[in-house]
């Protein structure tokens, strides 16, 4: 019997192989309920593999993984999952409400009765994700951001306890990324949803993250954000120079490219005017004057990711070329 105090996800000495090769090993960590966690690492480090393991789609070669108090794969009915290429698996001619209904009925073909309750659940989730008025539109008529909301709605309609998403911000423009991050923040705040997000790039997610699983040197580790936001750790993780710069107000900038940093601040600390000047100098072109943050926590002054305005670069294998301003909470 599952206990509320149990972690949501627990790895014990977990190791996995693919094609006869060990992808990662010695994974021992616990992720608590009600948290928002990123899975980060370079291309091929095994982020998607970790989701596959948590869903019980891939057996371990060593150790154990428990999800929602059960061996991985046995509680999938309580997990909402948004795969990386959602549209690859879905008929893009289906309407928004039909696609969301699949989250309840499964992908069974043929006629099946839809209850009033099920229709109500679909309508509620359409409202929650902000797709009201678009119910009858086909998925291929929607923008990428709205399609991603439909994918998330499908995963949420059966009210899971855990939401797993694989690169949900990839290929979205800045406004769409912000809207999706805001949706995650509301889900976590209002529903107490535990959320785990595979992401190449921490940037846009930083305001809502509790911690991160990082795949370093072939081993998964979990830490809270105050530990993850360490220049040395991020430099090692991404294999490129990364600096975490902090203003006295607590705004932080992760600056992967040392050439873009102001001179003479080896300690990674700027005063407020220097930080403003630095930000304006390097990123003002993507943050027009007066543009306010649309981040997940609007009460915080949160300049957005510069790279996020360039979807093609934002989704590449490392944080190189991307910069984030955010406010650290923990
Ligand atoms: N079905 C498979 N058979 C064999 N090897 C695989 C299979 N799927 C993935 N791999 C390999 O496992 C490793 C981890 O892949 P995975 O997709 O989990 O990485 P990732 O961190 O999500 O990468 P990316 O950031 O590129 O999406 C890669 O080297 C990949 O080539």
TrEMBL record:
Matches recorded under InterPro entries: AAA+_ATPase, ABC_transporter-like_ATP-bd, Metal_Ion_Import_ABC, P-loop_NTPase
Keywords: ATP-binding, Nucleotide-binding, Transport
Polar residues composition bias: residue spans: 289-314
Region Disordered, residue ranges: 286-330
Domain of life: Bacteria
One MF term in the entry's GO annotations: ATP hydrolysis activity
Domain ABC transporter span(s) in chain numbering: 9-242
Protein family: Belongs to the ABC transporter superfamily.
Alphabetized PANTHER family for the sequence: METAL TRANSPORT SYSTEM ATP-BINDING PROTEIN TM_0124-RELATED
Annotated protein name in UniProt: ABC transporter ATP-binding protein
């Amino acid at each position: 019997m599952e206990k509320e105090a149990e972690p949501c996800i627990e790895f014990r000495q977990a190791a996995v192989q693919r094609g006869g090769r060990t992808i990662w090993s010695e994974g021992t960590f616990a992720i608590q309920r009600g948290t928002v966690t990123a899975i980060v690492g370079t291309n091929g480090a095994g982020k998607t593999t970790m989701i596959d393991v948590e869903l019980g789609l891939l057996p371990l070669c060593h150790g154990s993984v428990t999800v929602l108090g059960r061996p991985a794969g046995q509680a999938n009915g309580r997990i909402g999952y948004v795969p990386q290429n959602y549209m690859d698996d879905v008929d893009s001619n289906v309407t928004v409400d039909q696609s969301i209904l699949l989250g309840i009925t499964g992908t069974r073909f043929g006629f099946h009765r839809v209850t009033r309750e099920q229709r109500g659940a679909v309508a509620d989730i359409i409202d929650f994700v902000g797709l009201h008025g678009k119910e009858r539109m086909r998925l291929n008529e929607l923008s990428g951001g709205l399609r991603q909301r439909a994918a998330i709605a499908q995963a949420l309609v059966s009210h899971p306890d855990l939401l797993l998403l694989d690169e949900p911000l990839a290929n979205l423009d800045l406004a769409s990324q912000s809207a999706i991050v805001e949706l995650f923040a509301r889900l976590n705040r209002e529903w107490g949803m535990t959320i785990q997000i595979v992401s190449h790039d921490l940037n846009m997610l930083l305001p809502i993250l509790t911690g991160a699983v990082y795949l370093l040197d072939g081993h998964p580790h979990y830490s809270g954000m105050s530990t993850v936001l360490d220049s040395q750790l991020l430099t090692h993780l991404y294999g490129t120079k990364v600096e975490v710069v902090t203003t006295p107000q607590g705004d932080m900038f992760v600056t992967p490219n040392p050439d873009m940093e102001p001179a003479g601040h080896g300690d990674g600390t700027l005063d407020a005017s220097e930080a403003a000047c630095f930000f304006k100098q390097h990123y003002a072109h993507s943050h027009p004057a007066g543009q306010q943050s649309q981040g997940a926590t609007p009460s915080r002054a949160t300049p957005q990711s510069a790279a996020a305005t360039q979807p093609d670069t934002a989704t590449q294998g490392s944080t190189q070329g991307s910069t984030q301003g955010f406010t650290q909470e923990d």
